[in-house]
Amino acid sequence: MQPYPILLSVVVPLRNAAGRVRALIEPLVVELSAHVEDFEVVVVDNGSDDGSAREYADLVGEGGLPNLQIYRLIREVDFEIAVWAGVENALGDYVLVLDPLNEDLSFLPQALEKISEGVDLVTIRNTTPKPMSGPERLLDRLFRGAYRKLVGVDLATEGASCRIISKRVVSFLMEQPKPALRYRALPALAGFPKASLDYPGPRAAKDQAGLRTKARRGLNLLFAQTMLPLRLASALAITGATLNLIYSGYVILIRLFKADVMPGWTTLSLQQSGMFFLLSLVVFILVEYVAQMLVWTLEGPSYYLAGEHTSTVMTRRSRLNVEADRKPALKRAR
After folding, report:
1. How far from chain centre, in Å, is Cα 184?
2. What is the C-alpha end-to-end distance of the chain, expressed in Å?
3. How far apart are CA 224 and CA 300, in angstroms?
4. SS3 assignment, position 45
5. Per-residue pLDDT averaged across 211-227, rounded?
6. Closest by alpha carbon to 53, among 45, 43, 64?
7. Confidence of residue 16 (pLDDT cuts 50, 70, 90)
8. Burial of residue 3 (number of CB atoms within 10 Å: 0-12, 13-18, 19+)
9. How far is CA 323 from CA 314, 328, 330, in A?
10. CA atoms within 13 Å, Cβ hemisphere of 2
11. Is the CB of residue 99 less than 8 Å from the CB of residue 13?
12. What is the DSSP string of 162-210?
């Protein structure tokens, strides 16, 4: 099979991979050499603290591997941010994001075939289940279900971390205010030609990220894609204001139609209900203001051109005589 005539960038996020860096990267170089005409491997070291920096230096030195770019982050960041650091610095016509601990390149011929059909985004899902404990698997399902209900995105199929994206998609992401977060749910949010691909691949041992880290990543992803939490707070605030207003009316009715009201009860009740009414109203206004500010802050460009085509025949060109008029003018000037 002829190699595909493209420059393919492969972004590889790694952390604390001392002793196995070369073993993880070298098979990728061999596979890529056989399938594409040109490639680069962009390794993002996500704040490793195991002394793997020397191994990265050896990889790019004499006797190392070809076509490597290595970016070492000062501190550990979320997976999506580490991936975006590599995507943003990739030079290829297409960018493949790959976790070598949980993926291999056995899917590459099929993915390249889909690219040749004009697809800008190929989502690649490893059908081999991840090793998780019972509680982690339950929480994972609950979060995916809640995210699907609130945002309308099925992370199991549309949020796979392994994917190939074109340079047009990268340009689209770079115009977003939070590209790293937009990248995760990109297949469901972008209107580019896309395809999906399932394959059985390898899986590493249990994910080293703790439950707290996963929960924080999940909340960041949820809050970045929906205003529902703010809308819920706004609804509770206006509900509280309405209930306090109703209670104030109830206090006034009791005072008017009931004779044995304890002295001071009416005044105290109206004071409390009035204060809580004003407080709930202030909270409602602040929440709505924050929601609107977030909309303005996180809003991307008004439009994005996915493509542009121009007719090869332009009738107006036959009516233009600017070039013909300029030449005599130039001769006269001389």
Report:
1. 3
2. 61
3. 13
4. strand
5. 67
6. 45
7. confident
8. middle
9. 16, 10, 11
10. 4
11. yes
12. -EEEEHHHHHHHHTSSSHHHHHHTHHHH--S-EEEEEE-----SS--S-
Give the residues across from 313 on adjacent strands: none
Q: 62: buried, middle or exposed (CB in 10 Å: 19+, 13-18, 0-12)?
A: exposed
- What confidence tens digit (pLDDT) does each residue in 95-149 have? 999 999 888 999 999 999 999 998 999 999 988 887 777 777 787 788 777 777 7
Q: What are phi and psi of 311, to 5 degrees?
A: -60, 140
Q: Which amino acid is at 226?
A: T
Sheet holding 68-72: strands in order across? Answer: 68-72, 36-45, 4-14, 94-97, 163-166, 121-126, 194-199
254, two tokens: 């009791």
Grouping H, G, I as helix, E, B as strand and the rest as coil, residue 6 is strand
Q: Are strands 94-97 and 163-166 parallel, antiparallel or unpaired?
A: antiparallel
β-sheet bridge partners, residue 161: none
